[in-house]
Inverse folding.
């Protein structure tokens, strides 16, 4: 298989994986203060994503795939807020196990990885276009 086409496939798999990662991080940030609906109920639990390297048997190129979407099993933090509908009989409310600073760092990393894959796609496309132009000029 053509190396430029392989590069496009690898970059496309990276774009798809990072897009999914950005969606998961966005959901976590959006629910960073989502408590349970009833007294003592568990709040939103942080979602996680795992990637795996896959080898394309035709081209031999490695690509990245979403291996697993999961949830973070770490403990919830609690806060005293007796007026909250999710407060227990002691006035304590369970808060999601989402750390917004960590999510923002993950978002920045995913965004940069997405941009790198997009740049790879643009470069491969330009090289393919230049190759076609060279072939036309030589005829």
């Amino acid at each position: 298989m053509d190396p430029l086409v392989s590069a496009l496939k690898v970059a496309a798999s990276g774009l798809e994986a990072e897009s999914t990662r950005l969606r998961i991080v966005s959901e976590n940030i959006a629910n960073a203060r989502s408590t349970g609906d009833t007294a003592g109920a568990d709040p939103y639990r942080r979602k996680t994503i795992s990637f795996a390297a896959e080898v394309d048997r035709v081209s031999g190129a490695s690509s990245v795939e979403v291996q697993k979407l999961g949830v973070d099993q770490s403990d919830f933090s609690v806060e005293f807020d007796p007026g909250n509908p999710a407060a227990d009989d002691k006035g304590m409310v369970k808060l999601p196990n989402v750390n917004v600073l960590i999510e923002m760092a993950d978002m920045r990393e995913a965004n940069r990885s997405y941009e790198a894959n997009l740049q790879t796609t643009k470069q491969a496309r330009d090289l393919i276009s230049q190759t076609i132009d060279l072939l036309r000029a030589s005829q």
